[in-house]
Amino acid sequence: MENNPASQIFSSLIGYQLYGKDYNKDSESCQDLKVRLNEISQLKKLRDEPESFWLYLFRKTFTNVCATVEGKPSVAAVEEYAAKEEERLEEQCESLGDDGLRKCGQKIEEAIEKNTVRLAYPLP
Question: So where are the chain's domains?
Fold first, then answer.
């Protein structure tokens, strides 16, 4: 939290939105969110867990049962995809025309400027 508070808070919020127990319920307490944002209490709780907790977690995570999947990229599929993408881009450029491409470029520039602007006030 001291080094990068925004990242820590956003990570907690995103984790809550994706995996939170009470995110989709009509609950005003949002207990799961409170737990996620209070990292110190979670770390203290983990510190006090017995050895059996950690052994169980280790055994559950690192089992002897595993599978290895080996994949080899297809050169033909990559070339086919690249050709289709090139064709799609050409069609899009033709359908947009010069004015459309210019407008899209302007929208992108505005979005980049908006998303990279520095705040005029420091975060608390």
Answer: 5-61, 76-117
